[in-house]
Specification:
Distance between the termini: 131 Å
Helix content: 40-55%
Family: Belongs to the cyclic nucleotide phosphodiesterase family.
Shape: elongated
Number of strands: 19
EC number: 3.1.4.-
Oligomer: single chain
Cofactor: a divalent metal cation
Keywords: cGMP, Hydrolase, Metal-binding
Protein name: Phosphodiesterase
């Protein structure tokens, strides 16, 4: 690229603060001059001095234009050719104007030439122009067809052709401003009037009014000049809204009748003040309504001062005017509908943007409302936009609602419920957000800041909260009188009326419970307009999104507070869950006996003879003998404190307590060393297995997963599957994260992630539900002949089966130990069964039913056959050195089976009532499963107690006391008379 071109392109990036668009436009000038410059530079025969002079000249101009952007803009407006503008438009994606169809009227063609733009038709390009980049209406200073030429052209047409020409002219115009200007220009030519005005009807039914769209438009006027003349320096309409029935235009709008006034000053409806201000003398006036296809007034057109003849409008003028406005009504309504669709599109875009903001901004309420208010102000164009947030949790109201709260009628405590205000004076705003038109940042004024001239705004906002209704205030004298009379919004009687002149639209903001949590308020719409139904609909949509945003943000803030509280609670819990330094020092300074002393290497280990201090020393010894403290560089104090903290976090339940965890850990320890399983695992896996065993029942509550689900405990809500196991793992991690307890602190991130993963998998494997899912896969793997234990999946499966084997390893202990452990397990189960009866009013399963404790031997046999034997038999296939576990399990099965058989024998003897001849007594009969003992008396042994199914107690009070046994079922005897194991032979009376 040549140097000169670079200089011109440099201009594009200068003066951006003036007008970025102008810089781009001037860039097209550079492009249009490039050919000349490039020819000069590329031709070697060109005189060097001439080239240098040309280069300096362009460089100087470029620098000057860069430093004087405003002058460049004026130069371009004054001297840029149409071709240059077209090149710029094409280069910036605007494209050339579509070709005009041949059937367009000459008026349209003339108007298009006058405005330097093609017709506006219903096309995607037009819609995009209106939505994305609405342009200013541009016109030349004069029309290509003069007024005289237009008049001659129109007069040469017959009436049908004339109407068709005019219809074509307006039917394709969808810009309201352009259409209204066309109508007035054409009407002025048709009626030979000096100028015309057009008013559009606005407002809801019952309070309709006229707005001056274009005023005093002459046949030679330019659209942009007419638009500028309709508003003052501040952009406000020069003509205030005219209610239906007021003035000439208002009368026509109300009556739908044509008015033809020969002398305006003689008509009392005419307002002379306008002539006084403008210096114009109005004589004749012709005014007619513009109706839609339903016959409703959508506007009023007015012609002023006929310039021919006697300067009076004739009946023929009225008829031509009427016919033309008939078709104008169609065009105006179409243009308004199109304008409405564009506005609705923008509104939908706003709502989508608001929705995006809600999901993007949840951490800060201030930033969220800032985003929303900026977007709404851009769309609705008002002087001020405010959001009031209501104080919904006043202390006195909370106490009152707490006293009157009925739990049956509501699911939420009253402190979380917004209040219902009976009076506006009761409303208290916690925060007020305000965005002004000339500002970009939202500020938060106090009520004191709004107590002066804007106090009425606060009164209306409180009124909206109290009534929960939209309040649209126009500030008219009639409305002020109503407020004074009825005390609406609790406005003080002495409040100055001039402070009530603002136009204010206030809409309540509701939360998800349809309670008012705030107010959205707009103040003084631009151009002095009142707020319309469309504005109300837009603001209502805004209030919905604002309510959602406020709700989401407040929920986020509440969640953040709850998380902070949870963090504090965890810190407190962590402190109290950790062992004290005194306990740690005591364990550190105590000599640790050998593993042989504790019999840690034996599969027959028992903790019954160990004290609590001994159990901690035994746990520490296992980590020492596996050399894990050295391999993982664990400080001895941290190791001791972690063990004591784990012990502290076990609850004093009957079975699933610290001692059970120690026994499970000892079993995996003996499996690794005595059972020679150590070589199958890495050091990380071995460490993880010991940690998992010691922590696998942390914070056990003495109840199983099923019970947690039935009572809908927080744990069951938190974990849908393996409820307690997930909780045990979380407690394990919590202890590891507690200060002074992290035994993994010197691991790399990869090692830490790996060991935590193994710990989690191992603890979850203690859920028997997972054991049943994985058992068949493990058995098939073992039976395959030569399983690959280096495979990660196979190794994980093996670790899971080992955890189950360790968890139920009490079944492999010597009979004395096994029987005592079984009683502990049964005791914990029976406690859960009692809770199910008491709290859930349910009959527990047999293993948890205290009334079926005599069936414990049979249930133990079933437990061994279903769970224990399969896993031990499979593990022996993996490592024969684990055979002592299998043999211990088989031996205990024999013992439980013997007890079950002995119980069955005694039950049989119980119902074989003998009379001394080993025959059934004739007085005893068994019919339909019932035992009838009408005359039977038995002796109850010493220290025996029991009860029948109906609750009547049976007990022995003396050695020879006789008890009468009524008829009952055999099942009842089996369930309710376990004390008859040594019953005396009944004696028949």
């Amino acid at each position: 690229m040549c140097t000169a071109k670079m200089k011109w392109l440099d201009f594009l990036y200068c003066g951006e603060e003036e007008d970025a668009e102008v810089s781009s436009l001037v860039g097209s000038i550079a492009d249009s001059k490039m050919a000349e410059l490039e020819i000069v530079e590329e031709d070697p025969n060109v005189d060097e001095m001439q080239s240098t002079t040309e280069h300096i000249r362009e460089s100087t101009v470029s620098t000057y234009l860069s430093e004087h952007a405003r002058f460049a803009r004026q130069w371009f407006i004054r001297y840029a050719t149409p071709d240059m503008v077209s090149e710029w438009l094409v280069g910036h994606g605007y494209g050339p104007d579509p070709e005009m169809p041949e059937n367009l009227s000459s008026l349209t063609d003339s108007y298009a030439k006058a405005t330097h733009s093609g017709r506006n038709s219903v096309t995607s390009e037009l819609f995009q122009d209106m939505v994305v980049c609405p342009k200013k209406k541009k016109q030349n200073m004069s029309n290509n067809l003069s007024r005289k030429e237009l008049q001659q052209h129109l007069k040469s047409l017959k009436e049908p052709d004339l109407l068709m020409e005019l219809i074509r002219d307006i039917a394709n115009e969808l810009d309201v401003d352009t259409l209204c200007h066309k109508i007035l220009v054409n009407v002025s030519i048709l009626t030979n009037s000096d100028r015309g005005s057009l008013f559009l009807a606005k407002g809801p039914r019952g309070s309709r009014y006229l707005v001056a769209k274009l005023f005093d438009v002459t046949p030679d006027s330019v659209l942009q000049d007419a638009l500028d003349a309709a508003v003052d320096e501040e952009g406000e309409s020069r003509i205030p809204p005219i209610p239906f029935g007021v003035g000439i235009a208002g009368h026509v709008a109300l009556t739908k009748e044509c008015v033809n006034i020969k002398d305006a000053y003689q008509d009392p409806r005419f307002n002379k003040d306008i002539d006084t201000r403008t210096g114009y003398r109005t004589v004749s006036v012709m005014c007619q309504p513009i109706l839609n296809f339903q016959g409703d007034v959508i506007g009023v057109a007015q012609c002023i001062n006929k310039v021919t003849g006697d300067h009076q409008f004739t009946e023929q003028d009225q008829e031509v005017f009427r016919k033309y406005l008939t078709f104008c009504g169609i065009g105006v309504q179409n243009a308004q509908l199109f304008e409405m669709s564009v506005r609705e599109f923008k509104r939908n875009q706003l709502l989508l943007s608001l929705a995006k903001s809600i999901f993007e901004e949840t951490s800060s309420l201030d930033r969220l409302i800032n985003k929303i208010m900026v977007k709404v102000e851009e769309l609705l164009q008002c002087e001020k936009c405010r959001v009031y947030l209501v104080d919904t949790e006043q202390e006195d109201l909370v106490l009152q609602r707490l006293d009157n709260f009925d739990e049956k009628s509501s699911s939420l405590p009253p402190i979380f419920k917004p209040r219902k205000f009976s009076k506006p004076q009761d409303v208290i705003f916690t925060t007020i957000f305000e965005l002004r038109r000339d500002e970009q940042e939202v500020r938060q004024p106090s009520l004191k800041d709004l107590s002066g001239s804007e106090a009425a705004h606060v009164y209306f906002a409180r009124h909206v909260v109290a009534t929960e209704q939209t309040f649209n205030w126009s500030g008219t004298d009639d409305e002020i009188k109503v407020v004074r009379k009825s005390n609406i919004a609790a406005v003080p009687p002495d409040f100055p009326s001039e402070k009530l002149k603002s136009r204010i639209l206030s809409i309540p903001i509701f939360n998800s419970e349809n309670k008012v949590i705030g107010v959205a308020q707009l103040v003084n719409k631009s151009k002095g307009q009142i707020f319309t139904d469309c504005d109300i609909n837009t603001l209502e949509a805004f209030s919905i999104f604002c309510g959602l945003g406020i709700y989401n943000t407040q929920m986020y803030e509440n969640a953040s507070k709850l998380m902070a509280k949870q963090k504090v609670a965890l810190e407190v819990l962590s402190y109290h869950a950790s062992s004290s330094l005194e306990e740690t020092k005591k364990l550190m300074t105590t000599p640790i006996p050998t593993g042989e002393t504790f019999k840690l290497y034996s599969f027959h280990f028992s903790d019954f003879h160990l004290s609590d201090d001994d159990t901690c020393q035994a746990a520490l010894r296992m980590f020492i003998d596996l050399d894990l403290i050295t391999k993982f560089r664990i400080p001895y104090q941290v190791m001791c404190r972690w063990i004591l903290s784990v012990k502290k976090n076990y609850r004093p339940v009957i079975y699933h307590n610290w001692r059970h965890a120690l026994n499970v850990t000892q079993t995996v320890f003996s499996m690794l060393l005595t059972g020679q399983m150590k070589d199958l695992f890495t050091d990380i896996e071995i460490m993880a297995l010991l940690v998992a065993c010691l922590c696998h029942d942390l914070d056990h509550r003495g109840t199983n997963n099923s019970f947690q689900t039935k009572i809908e405990s927080p744990l069951a809500i938190l974990y849908s599957t393996s409820t307690m196991e997930h909780h045990h793992f979380d407690q394990c991690v919590m202890i590891l994260n507690s200060e002074g307890n992290n035994i993994f602190q010197f691991l790399s991130p990869e090692e830490y992630k790996s060991i935590i993963s193994v710990v989690e998998s191992a603890i979850l494997s203690t859920d028997l539900a997972l054991y049943f899912k994985k058992k068949d896969s493990f058995l098939n793997l073992v039976k395959s002949g030569d399983p690959d234990w280096t495979n990660p999946q196979n190794k994980e499966l093996l670790r899971g089966m080992m955890m189950t084997a360790c968890d139920v390893s009490a079944i492999c202990k010597p009979w004395e130990v096994q029987r005592k452990v079984a009683e502990l397990v049964a005791g914990e189960f029976f406690q859960q069964g009692d809770l199910e009866k008491e709290r859930l009013k349910e009959q527990p399963i047999a293993m948890m039913d205290r009334d079926k404790k005599d069936e414990l031997p049979a249930m133990q046999v079933g437990f061994i056959d279903c769970i224990c034997l399969p896993v031990y038999e499979a593990l022996v296939e993996v490592q024969p050195e684990l055979n002592p576990l299998l043999q211990g399990c088989l031996e205990n099965r024999k013992n439980w089976q013997a007890l079950a058989n002995d119980k069955h024998k005694k039950e049989t003897e119980l119902f074989t009532f003998r009379n001394g001849t080993n025959k059934k007594s004739e007085n005893n009969r068994q019919l339909n499963g019932m035992v009838h003992l009408p005359q039977t008396v038995c002796y109850i042994p010493d220290n025996s107690r029991g009860c029948f199914k109906d609750g009547r107690e049976i007990s022995r009070r003396s050695e020879k006391e006789e008890i009468f046994l009524p008829s009952c079922s055999i099942q009842t005897y089996k369930q309710r008379a376990p004390f008859w194991e040594s019953v005396h032979r009944p004696v028949t009376v």
